[in-house]
Amino acid sequence: MRALQRLMIVSCAVGVAASAAPARAQAPSDKPVPTQQAATQQAFKRTPAPADAYVYIGWPNDNETVHTTHIKVWFGTRNFGVAPAGTTKPNTGHHHLLIDTPLPPMDQPIPNDKNHQHFGLGQTETFVDLPPGTHTLQILMGDVDHVPHDPPLMSKKITIHVRAAPASAVAEAH
Fold first, then answer.
1. CB of 47 within 8 A of CB of 144?
2. Computed from CA positions of residues 106, 45, 94, 121, in that sequence, does the dihedral angle turn out positive or negative?
3. H or E stretch including 16?
4. Are 71 and 160 in contact (CB under 8 A)?
5. Which position among 32, 133, 134, 152 has the lowest Cβ density within 10 Å, counted as fewest Cβ atoms?
6. Is the dihedral of CA 21, 25, 29, 32 positive or negative?
7. Full-model pTM
8. How far is CA 161 from CA 7, 117, 125, 135, in A?
9. Cα-based torsion angle of the residue sequence 58, 62, 66, 68 in order, rounded to the nearest 10 degrees
10. Domains assigned to the chain
11. Percentage above 70 pLDDT, the chain
């Protein structure tokens, strides 16, 4: 019985010593451990675009002063086709109008909010309502998944000056 007790004590001591000893593991990797944020910011495959493709805003012009808050904007492409979102066809994409915002990351889908307007049906013109003041407009083409092409197809960023009272204020004045 004493031998059995001694054996149990020794076994427990060995178990405690083993659990207290430093763990033997693989050497740490030089690769960073991906975080949740990094996982959601994965790069998307970008669709190739021809080097001679060109995107532009036809109206309004850069530095234009407009006398309405309801502004027609039209845009186009050269050497590049316009197709609805979801269309997989080489050398095509759809417009995104960026209003008062910098360019988004080029390896991510273009956001869809008040500053990043999507024209996924292949539209080439729109009306935007902007308050009086100075604003910037820029077109960025997106592929089938709303990701900018490679190289990115973007218009020159233009500045416009809105010098009109909002339509509701004009209606109330009459």
1. yes
2. negative
3. helix 2-20
4. yes
5. 32
6. negative
7. 0.72
8. 90, 20, 19, 6
9. 60
10. 54-170 (2.60.40.10)
11. 70
